[in-house]
C-alpha cells in the first residue's frame, strides 16, 4: 500500500488537508512551523516572531544588543498567553510532523495534473489564464487584455509579485492588529485591576469613617448620660428639701390643730376655778405655738431648672461642617502663614531701621 496515496486522498480531502496546513497569520502554507505550548497551535516562525516583536518592542531578536530574560506571547488563535525565555520565538519547538506532512502534500500536488478550472481564467478571453495585475485599475487580468484589450494603456506587473507583496502587507497588518489587541487586552486588565482596587479602597475608608462616627456617637451618649445624671441629682436634692419642709409643716399643723381643740374644750368649762387652773398654761402654749410657725421656706424661683440649658448651636454647626479634608486647604493655610511671617519680618526690619 502506497503511504503517500493513503495519506493524501483525492477530492475534497486534499482541500481539507490544505486548510489545516495554512498559517492563520500569513494565510500561506506553514514555513518552518513552530508549536505554541501548551495550546499546541502552529504558526510560521517568521509570523510568530513578527507578532512577538510587535507585542514586545523593547525585546531584541538574536544578535541584538539589548538583553532581556524573555517576553510575553499571546496565541492569535486562542489568545492563550505564553512566557518566552531569552531566545524568544526561536526557543519554540519546530513542528517536524507538520513539516513532513507539508512536504508530502507538495510532492503529491506536483505529481497531479492541473485540473481544468483550478486556475482563474479571463472572462474576456476564456482560454487565457489571469497572469498579470493591472496597477492602474487594481484588478487581475490576462496578457491579451494588456496587448489587445481594455488595459492597453494601463501599467501592469507580474501577478506573483503583487500577490506576494499584498500577502506580506496583509501579514504585517494582521501582526499590527494582533499587537493592538494585546495592548487593548492589557489596558482592560489594568482597568479591571483599577476597579478592584477602587472597591477595596472604598470599603476600607467606609469602615474607617463608620468607626470614627461610632466613636462620636459613644462620646455623645456618654456625655448625655452624665448631664442627665446631674439634672436627676439636682431634682432629688430639691425634692428632698421640699418634702422635708412639707413634713415639718404637717407636724406643726397637727400640733396646732390639737391645741385648738384643747382650747375650745377649755372654753366650754363652766367652773371658773377649773378653767383658771389650765387657762394660763394653755395661753402660753398657744403663744409659743404661734411663734414656732416661722418654719423654713423655698426661695422664689427655687423650682427653676433653666441653668441646665445647653447652647449646642456652635457644636451643631461644627458637626454640619464635617467634611473630607483636601490638600488645597492645607496649601492655602501654608500660604497664609508664609504671608504672615513675611509681613512680620518686613515690619521688624522697618522698626530696626
UniProtKB/TrEMBL annotation:
Give residue spans, biased composition: Acidic residues: 325-344
**Keyword set for this entry?**
Coiled coil, Cytoplasm, Metal-binding, Ubl conjugation pathway, Zinc, Zinc-finger
Give the originating organism: Mus spicilegus
Highest taxon of source: Eukaryota
Q: Tell me which residues make up the B box-type domain.
A: 117-159
Give start and end of each COS domain.
267-325
**Compartments where found:** Cytoplasm, Myofibril, Sarcomere, Z line
Where are the residues of the annotated region Disordered?
Answer: 324-353
Q: Which PROSITE patterns match?
A: COS (PS51262), ZF_BBOX (PS50119), ZF_RING_1 (PS00518), ZF_RING_2 (PS50089)
Q: Provide the GO biological process annotations.
A: negative regulation of glycolytic process
Name any GO cellular component annotation.
Z disc
Question: Protein name, please?
Answer: Tripartite motif-containing 63
Ranges of residues in domain RING-type: 23-79
A GO MF annotation of the entry reads: ubiquitin protein ligase activity
One of the Pfam families matching this protein, by short name: zf-B_box
Task: Report the InterPro entries cross-referenced here.
Answer: Bbox_C (IPR003649), COS_domain (IPR017903), TRIM/RBCC (IPR050143), TRIM63_RING-HC (IPR042667), Znf-RING_euk (IPR027370), Znf_B-box (IPR000315), Znf_RING (IPR001841), Znf_RING/FYVE/PHD (IPR013083)
Q: What is the lineage of its organism?
A: Eukaryota, Metazoa, Chordata, Craniata, Vertebrata
Task: Kindly report the protein's main subcellular placement as a broad class.
Answer: cytoplasm
Amino acid at each position: 500500500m502506497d503511504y503517500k496515496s493513503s495519506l493524501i486522498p483525492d477530492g475534497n480531502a486534499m482541500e481539507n488537508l490544505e486548510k489545516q496546513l495554512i498559517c492563520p497569520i500569513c494565510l500561506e502554507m506553514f514555513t518552518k512551523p513552530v508549536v505554541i505550548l501548551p495550546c499546541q497551535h502552529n504558526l510560521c516562525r517568521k509570523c510568530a516572531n513578527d507578532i512577538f516583536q510587535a507585542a514586545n518592542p523593547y525585546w531584541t531578536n538574536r544578535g541584538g544588543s539589548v538583553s532581556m530574560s524573555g517576553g510575553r506571547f499571546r496565541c492569535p488563535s486562542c489568545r492563550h498567553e505564553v512566557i518566552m525565555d531569552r531566545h524568544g520565538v526561536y526557543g519554540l519547538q519546530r513542528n517536524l510532523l507538520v513539516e513532513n506532512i507539508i512536504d508530502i502534500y507538495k510532492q503529491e500536488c506536483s505529481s497531479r495534473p492541473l485540473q481544468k478550472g483550478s486556475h482563474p481564467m479571463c472572462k474576456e478571453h476564456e482560454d487565457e489564464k489571469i497572469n498579470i495585475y493591472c496597477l492602474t485599475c487594481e484588478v487581475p487580468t490576462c496578457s491579451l487584455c494588456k496587448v489587445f484589450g481594455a488595459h492597453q494603456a494601463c501599467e501592469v506587473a507580474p501577478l506573483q509579485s503583487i500577490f506576494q507583496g499584498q500577502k506580506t502587507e496583509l501579514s504585517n497588518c494582521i501582526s499590527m492588529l494582533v499587537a493592538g489587541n494585546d495592548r487593548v487586552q492589557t489596558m482592560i486588565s489594568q482597568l479591571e485591576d483599577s476597579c478592584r482596587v477602587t472597591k477595596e479602597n472604598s470599603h476600607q475608608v467606609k469602615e474607617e469613617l463608620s468607626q470614627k462616627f461610632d466613636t462620636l456617637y459613644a462620646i455623645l451618649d456618654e456625655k448625655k448620660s452624665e448631664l442627665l445624671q446631674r439634672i436627676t441629682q439636682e431634682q432629688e436634692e430639691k425634692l428632698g428639701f421640699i418634702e422635708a419642709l412639707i413634713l415639718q409643716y404637717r407636724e406643726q399643723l397637727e400640733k396646732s390643730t390639737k391645741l385648738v381643740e384643747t382650747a375650745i374644750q377649755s372654753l366650754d368649762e363652766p367652773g371658773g376655778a377649773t378653767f383658771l387652773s389650765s387657762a394660763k398654761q394653755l395661753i402660753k402654749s398657744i403663744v409659743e405655738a404661734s411663734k414656732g410657725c416661722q418654719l423654713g421656706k423655698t426661695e422664689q424661683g427655687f423650682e427653676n431648672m433653666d441653668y441646665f440649658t445647653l447652647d449646642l448651636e456652635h457644636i451643631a454647626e461644627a458637626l454640619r461642617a464635617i467634611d473630607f479634608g483636601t490638600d488645597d486647604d492645607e496649601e492655602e493655610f501654608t500660604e497664609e502663614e508664609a504671608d504672615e511671617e513675611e509681613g512680620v519680618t518686613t515690619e521688624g526690619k522697618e522698626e530696626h531701621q
